[in-house]
């Protein structure tokens, strides 16, 4: 039985918890508050939802799987990271800036 993603305690919206090694897209979504990262170690009784209001954790694997697949299916707008400049040792006792390729 899939839930509506509502907290069983306070009826606020829940945030699905993603387990495993997150990709860049998942890390950005976690910073935005769309998902919560649960870590790489998964056990049988880990919760799949966290309340956005009271932080209550609860189980609903089917509902969380549907919510996560819907979140990752929609297009996300990402901004490119600024290019970093790399410092190299010149051999003459100082560093100089080199653009990364």
Element layout with pairings:
Layout: E1 14-19, H1 24-32, E2 36-39, E3 49-51, E4 57-58, H2 61-73, E5 85-89, E6 95-99
Parallel strand pairs: 1-2
Antiparallel strand pairs: 1-3, 3-4, 5-6
Overview features:
two-stranded antiparallel sheet, 6 strands
Provide structural commentary.
By secondary structure, this protein is an alpha+beta fold. It has a domain at 14-73. 22% of the residues lie in helices and 25% in strands. It is built from two helices and six strands. It has helices at 24-32, 61-73, and strands at residues 14-19, 36-39, 49-51, 57-58, 85-89, 95-99. The strands form two sheets. Strands 2-1-3-4 form a four-stranded mixed sheet, covered by helices on one side. A two-stranded antiparallel sheet has the order 5-6. The longest helix is centred in the middle third of the chain and has 13 residues, at 61-73. The protein starts with 13 loop residues before the first strand and ends with a strand.
**Hey, roughly how much beta strand do the residues contain?**
15-25%
Structural class per helix/strand content? alpha+beta
Main β-sheet description: 4 strands, mixed
Spell the H/E element sequence: EHEEEHEE
Distance between the termini: 51 Å
Oligomer: single chain
